[in-house]
Design brief:
- The complex is a heterodimer of chains A (439) and B (357).
- Chain A has 439 residues and is an alpha/beta fold.
- Chain A contains 15 helices and 15 strands.
- In chain A, helix 1 crosses helix 6 and helix 14 runs antiparallel to helix 15.
- The mean pLDDT of chain A is 96.
- Chain B folds into two domains: 180 residues, Rossmann fold; 108 residues, 3-Layer(aba) Sandwich (Rossmann fold), CATH 3.40.50.
- In chain B, the strands form three sheets. In chain B, strands 2, 3, 4, 5, 6, 7, 8 and 14 form an eight-stranded mixed beta sheet that branches. A five-stranded mixed beta sheet of chain B has the order 11-13-12-15-16, with helices on both faces. A two-stranded antiparallel sheet of chain B has the order 1-9.
- The chains are: A alpha/beta (439), B alpha/beta (357).
- The interface between A and B is large, with 69 and 74 residues.
- Strand 11 of chain A pairs antiparallel with strand 9 of chain B, so a sheet runs across the interface.
- Bound molecules: thiamine diphosphate, iron/sulfur cluster (SF4) and magnesium ion (MG).
- Magnesium ion binds next to helix 3 and strand 5 of chain A.
Chain lengths: 439, 357
């Protein structure tokens, strides 16, 4: 038995409770105060997070820290508080209404397993807004919004927490003598704990459905929803698991930008806008990165945009590269100076752009992709004879090499250096092999 | 070489952010992945919530426990952030939110850039209380404005938005290292909060009640009309009275110009190109880039409007910021919008065309 440090955790100057006579909410608050007393907790290490509803009036009755947020979201704030400061003991007070509108927070908090305790003040309807039906309203009940009887199957809140990984799950009633002990057990559990506490809303549900304490117990039996601890299992709480992640991560290097020194030079005088148009899987964007990096290594300014469908492994893949002697301001391409077509999907995707190109512009096309509806000069991509067998798998890197040779925007060595600097060693080795065909 | 997502993430980390929660959405997901990968390396916490509501809920909860929090989303996610943003305003929780705009409405064109949420950020929650919105035009500014957003959030105990877009977040560019390393010459944001700092929940600390309901200074719910009015006035004025401190613009005024082009975000880059070309052609034209979109830097804008007969406002929406200029400009000033909502960026040529009318 811990030495109590306070006789009560209720802020007595704010009493009496403003709940209706006979409302169960006050009973549960008393039980919580007794549990805190049993545990001898300092008020400053306890945060009571209240939802909205009559239950949401509870925070002002406690001498502990409190947080009063939005309807249905109490559990999300509680998790955030606990994650940031695990020293704090965090308790959520939420109604059956809150468990409805925020149901997915409830089941996800059980999965996440932050070390918080959720007390559900389950009185089978919305008290505060006038006794409308909630997710736990028993079948055939009369409420403000089911005047001829409710037809929805009631949700089992404890059961939901249980099947979604809740470590400690119990069902209780506001009338249980041992409710303080049950709350203490839940709070001692290292991880997510929930007690579904059945209650009476004397203003609405009780009077409309002739539903007193006896009827509530009878309903419990008829539904086979027994009270007591339903689940008690140990698994690492979020705090424990995440500490492990932090430990592993702390050994990794922090992110850094890709710093490229300008070891090469270029004498282009105006921006060149290049579009590589291919298909998913052809590594088009990575070839675009190579061209942009090679230009950067040569003291030029670049931007590289990528365009692809949301389902990235199908359809077109387009890289738009602007290479310029001045910093790139407008990074879009309305009319490319150069387009390279390496797959039918890409050709179709940029048809609008190639159409705008002029006679002085050039379209390079892979086998079978010529005959573009455009006044631009159209030339086949003529890879070295020795590279023919690479075309199928590595056409993008080949195209980057080919364009570098043809366009003369920057030295070929800059492209090779870009491969070495920005690509993973294994891929760099393959691509350097591919570029060797141009020598 | 870096993209805007990495610049924003770096800006947040360097500003001392130690908590991030978010939900994946193009074109903001890259910020989420950077933050979730980086935060545990430095002892911070990063997680993916089950939705945007819980993500922002985690952030607000963590902030009241002392975290420096950050999140990012796009338009659809901002809709789900809405109610919690109101809570952050009411609780006076410092909160930085990056909005990477994509073309709406609804799911819209998820991989296309837009600037359609400029008014939405300002008016995203009930009550109409002010928030701060900063908009970078390029990658170095994405870094530095993110950093600044954290300072503003702390100083004003308020949500601060970074209004960016798909183009800026997802385009990789070459950037001079010095521009990333050296902070621009912007007026400093003071360190101390305009009112009281947020005192987090702490064992052995002062007992706090943080609430979304109208409350007394101690955090107790109140129905007293005078206390409520005073509190709400303060919420409005703490930002409204400090517009000059928050105001951040870049002016490029030309002597004798009677046309002013005003833009922000990615469209300001097209404006800059257009202005360079027009001046090369011998035209006299002034330009104003607005970084602090909200509160509207009225004095700065009015200053630029002196002697101006015509204002051109390029933006990738149907003219959302033009409304703000409209209320400031004298009625003889001709206001011309250059607007695009067809997935393409506004081109410099379109702005030049508008100039020549
Ligand atoms: C987003 C939102 N929708 C609706 C409401 C209105 N509202 C306030 S309390 C409440 C229901 C509360 O019921 P419950 O959680 O069961 O608590 P009780 O009043 O029964 O204690 C509702 C719907 C709200 N505050 N916020
Ligand atoms: S309305 Fe119902 S829940 Fe609310 S205080 Fe009255 S009895 Fe309690
Ligand atoms: Mg209820």
């Amino acid at each position: 038995m811990v030495e109590p440090i306070l006789d009560t955790y209720i802020a007595e100057e704010n009493l009496p409770y403003e709940f209706c006579p006979g409302c169960s909410h006050g009973k549960v608050l008393g039980a919580l105060s007794n549990s805190l007393k049993q545990q001898g907790l300092d008020p400053s290490e306890v945060v009571i997070v209240t939802d909205i509803g009559c239950v949401g009036l509870s925070d002002k009755y406690f001498v502990t820290h409190a947080f009063h947020g939005l309807h249905g979201r109490a559990i999300t704030y509680a998790s955030g508080i606990k994650m940031q400061n695990p020293e704090l003991t965090v308790i959520v007070l939420i109604g059956d209404g809150g468990c409805g509108i925020g149901g997915y927070h409830l089941l996800n908090a059980a999965r996440l397993n932050t070390d918080i305790t959720v007390l559900v003040f389950n009185n089978f309807n919305f008290g505060m807004t006038g006794g409308q039906h909630s997710v736990t309203t028993p079948l055939d009940s009369i409420t403000a919004t089911t005047t001829l009887g409710s037809t929805d199957a009631p949700m089992d809140i404890a059961g939901t927490a249980k099947v979604n990984g809740g470590g400690f799950v119990a069902r209780a009633t506001a009338f249980d003598k041992d409710l303080p002990d049950m709350i203490t057990k839940a709070m001692h559990h290292d991880g997510f704990a929930l007690i579904d506490i059945w209650e009476l809303c004397t203003a609405y549900y009780v009077v409309r459905n002739d539903f007193g304490r006896k009827e509530m117990m009878g309903y419990m039996d008829s539904m086979n929803m027994e009270s007591g601890i339903l689940q008690e299992t140990e698994r690492p709480s979020f705090q424990t698991s995440y500490k492990g992640i932090q430990e592993q991560a702390s050994k990794q290097k922090p992110m850094s930008g890709l710093v490229l020194d300008t070891n090469f030079s270029s004498d282009i005088e105006k921006p060149v806008r290049i579009v590589l148009a291919g298909a998913a899987g052809q590594k088009v964007v990575s070839a675009g990165n190579l061209l942009a990096s090679a230009a950067t290594l040569s003291g030029l300014w670049t931007s590289r945009r990528a365009d692809f469908p949301i389902t990235i492994q199908t359809g077109f893949s387009v890289a738009e590269i602007v290479i310029s002697p001045e910093p790139v301001l407008y990074s879009g391409i309305i009319k490319p100076d150069v387009a390279a077509l390496i797959a039918p999907e890409g050709k179709a995707k940029i048809a609008r752009l190639t159409k705008t190109m002029e006679e002085s512009d050039t379209i390079y096309f892979a086998d079978g992709l010529g005959d573009v509806d455009s006044p631009a000069n159209q030339l086949p991509l003529e890879f070295p004879e020795s590279a023919k067998k690479e075309v199928h798998k590595n056409i993008s890197a080949l195209t980057a090499g080919y364009l570098t040779k043809q366009l003369n925007l920057f030295p070929f060595e800059a492209l090779q250096e870009a491969v070495r600097q920005i690509q993973k060693p294994k891929i760099a080795e393959i691509n350097l092999g591919i570029l060797a065909h141009f020598e | 070489m870096i993209d805007g997502a990495a610049a924003i993430a770096r800006g947040a980390l360097d500003a001392g952010c130690n908590f991030y929660a978010g939900y994946p959405i193009t074109p903001a997901s890259e910020i989420l992945t950077h933050m979730l990968r980086e935060l545990p390396k430095v002892g911070g916490i990063g997680l993916q919530g089950e939705d945007e509501i819980s993500s922002l809920g985690h952030c607000i909860g963590a902030a009241t426990a002392g975290a420096t929090v950050f999140t990012a989303t796009s338009g659809p996610g901002l809709s789900l952030y809405s109610e919690n943003i109101g809570l952050a305003i009411m609780m006076e929780v410092p909160l930085v939110i990056a909005i990477s705009q994509r073309l709406g409405p609804s799911t819209g064109a998820a991989t296309a850039s837009a600037q359609g949420d400029i008014q939405f950020m300002r008016w995203c929650t009930s009550g109409g209380y002010p928030v701060i919105v900063l908009s970078p035009t390029n990658i170095p500014e994405s870094y530095h404005l993110t950093n600044r957003a954290f300072k503003l959030a702390k100083r004003f105990r308020s949500p601060v938005f970074i209004a960016t877009d798909k183009e800026t977040v997802m385009t990789t560019e070459s950037v001079a290292e010095s521009e990333m390393l050296n902070a621009p010459n912007w007026p400093a944001i003071l360190d101390e909060p305009v009112d009281k700092p947020l005192d987090p929940y702490q064992k052995n600390g002062t007992i706090h009640h943080y609430t979304g309901s109208s409350h007394t200074e101690e955090g107790h719910i109140t129905k007293d009309p005078e206390i409520i009015a005073e509190f709400n006035e303060r919420l409005k004025n703490k930002i409204g009275d400090q517009v000059d401190e928050i105001a951040l613009v870049k002016t490029d005024l030309q002597e004798g110009a009677d046309t002013l082009i005003i833009s922000y975000g990615v469209s300001a880059r097209s404006m800059e190109t257009a202005v360079n070309q027009l001046r090369d052609q011998g035209e006299k034209v002034s330009a104003l880039t607005v970084y602090s979109l909200w509160p509207v830097p009225e004095m700065k804008i009015l200053g630029c409007l002196k002697g101006i007969k015509r204002v051109i406002i390029p933006e990738m929406n149907h003219g959302q910021y033009r409304h703000e200029i409209e209320r400031l400009a004298n009625e003889n000033v001709d206001l011309i919008g250059v607007n695009r909502v067809d997935t393409f960026l506004i081109t410099p040529e379109e702005i030049i065309e508008a100039y020549y009318g």
